[in-house]
Each structure stands twice: as structure tokens, then as C-alpha cells.
Amino acid sequence: MTTRKKIKNELGKEFTKKLMAYAATATGVMALTTGAEAGIVYSGVQNRPVSSGVSYNLDFDGGGTEFIFTQLTANTNSYRLRINGADGSDSWLETTGNYHAANLALNYTIQKSVAVGYAFGEKRALLATSYSGGSTYGNFIGKTGYIGVKFDCAAGTCYGWIQFTGAADVKSGIVVDWAYEDTGASIKAGNTGPVANNAPVADLNGSGTAGNDVSGSFIEGGGAVAIAPSGTVTDPDGDTIQTVTATLTNNLDGTGNGKWYGHCHPDRHGQHDQCRVHRRAPGHHIQ
């Protein structure tokens, strides 16, 4: 007896994923553009250097430079890393009374109201200072942290953050990356917005074999048979997939062959009940 069965293999997306942030790297002197969906606009990792004679002009939203990072050398033993605002509306959180830009912790909320000990400054602020006598001042000497900022934008006033690293000798710095909330809402330091979630890719016969077809032998009325014992699943986001379920969703009434086919051959007792069923991938959807 030859049995023909139509089988459709689908990889059910019954899994949980640990989201990991990633960013598309932008290029050139940064003028970020906002996508169709309002919210957080992120620069991607930039690592823009700042040193003697090398400044960096940061444009959050494409409307012109808002912040300028510079390194100044007063003499051979005195150095300063500084942030300047392009106009009076471009300002940053600084520690009250000393004009030093505050080094904010991850997830600090940047908004209109500020905590005690902080104020929005303007024109210029020191990130790090080293004097010839050995005295040092500032919150970014050999440290990385977030600068909270606000500036004029299409929404009125926008809030954002800039991640900055200052060298221990104050001779250089790096503008690492930045983001802002284009609706005028508050933003947490380091928040890069929603994480992309691309669908996993299934290969039912394993990564070491060409194609993605799979076949399995079974005996009618027998025990369970693994559908794709060598199957693999990879995630383009690099996320960790905890569980995956492969499910047969075919009609098991013996009708409907389509692009699925099978054959049976006698077993050692002469019974025609050992069958092999083959799956052909083209035209069949795998999730």
C-alpha cells in the first residue's frame, strides 16, 4: 500500500527574544533627519574626535549646528575641553555655579524641570580642565558620560543627550553618539529608541547542507518522529532564541499531493508500511 500525504512545514515563532540595541551608522558632518514616526532620533555610534585644531560641530536635526566641541591649549601645560552653544537657545545641564557640564548617569531624565544642583547653562561650559600647576577641574577628565542638552527645534524645544569621553590628559576627547526626542518630550540619557526586531531565518536541514528541504521516515501508527532534527534558526539581530517549535500543518487524510510526495516499500516482514515523505521548499512559506 502506497500512502501519499501532503505536508506543510512551518516554523512557528513561539519564542522569546532578548532585545539588543543596535544602530545604523550615519556618515558625514551629522545632520540627522527624522523618520515618518515621531520619537527618538539616534545618531548611531560616531566617535568624532576633538583635539587641538580639531573641533566638532554637532547638528541634531538638520537645522544647523547647535553645539561645538573644542580643545584649547593655553600653553604647553594647560588644556581645556569645552562645549559651546551656537546661540542662546542651545544649552546643557551643568553643575550650578561652576560652569562645568554635568556628567549624567545612564537613564537620567532630561527635561524642562531639573534636579537641585543642576541648571541649564549656555554660551560655553568646561568639560575638563588641566592647568600647568597640576590642578584639574571638570566632570569628564578620563571619564565617559552623558551631557543633557536642549535646543530649538520644529516642536519648539527639544531635549537630548550627547555621550562624550574626555582623555585623562585633557588633550583630546571623543563625541561618541547622541539622540534627541523630536516631539519635545523628555528623554533618558542613553536611550536610543525602539529596537529593530527582524524575523529569524530557518534552515530545516541544517546549516551544513545545501538548501532548506527536510525529509523524515515514519511508520504508520508508530511513535513520534522528529520533523527537523538538524534544523537551525538564526536571528539577524543577534538575539538569543530560547525555544523554537516546528509544526506539521498538513492535511492527514491521504489526499492532496501538490509538491509533496512519498513512497512506501516493504519492511523486513514484507509489509508495505514503511514510508518516506519529502518536502520541497519552493512555494512553501517558512516563518
What does this structure look like?
This protein is an all-beta fold and 287 residues long. The protein folds into 2 domains: 1-20 and 198-287, no CATH class; 40-188, no CATH class. It has no helices and 22 strands. The strands form 6 sheets. Strands 2, 3, 7, 8, 10, 13, 14 and 15 form an 8-stranded antiparallel beta sheet that branches. The protein has a 5-stranded antiparallel beta sheet with strand order 4-5-6-11-12, with no helix packed on it. The protein is elongated, with a radius of gyration of 30 Å. It starts with 8 loop residues before the first strand and ends in a 9-residue tail after the last strand. Residues 1-37, 256-267 and 270-287 have low confidence and may be disordered.
Task: Give me the secondary-structure topology.
Layout lengths: L8 E4 L27 E3 L5 E4 L4 E3 L8 E9 L2 E8 L5 E5 L4 E2 L7 E2 L7 E5 L1 E7 L5 E2 L6 E10 L2 E11 L5 E10 L5 E2 L12 E3 L11 E5 L12 E3 L10 E4 L12 E5 L8 E5 L9
Antiparallel strand pairs: 1-20, 2-15, 3-15, 4-5, 5-6, 6-11, 7-8, 7-10, 7-13, 9-16, 11-12, 13-14, 14-15, 17-19, 18-22, 21-22
Q: Which class of secondary structure composition applies to the elements? A: mainly beta
For the biggest sheet, the summary is: 8 strands, antiparallel
Query: Can you give the helix content as a percent range?
Result: under 10%
Number of domains: 2
Output the radius of gyration.
Answer: 30 Å
Q: In whole angstroms, how far apart are the ends? A: 34 Å
Low-confidence stretches: 1-37, 256-267, 270-287
* Strand and helix order: EEEEEEEEEEEEEEEEEEEEEE
How many helices? The count is 0
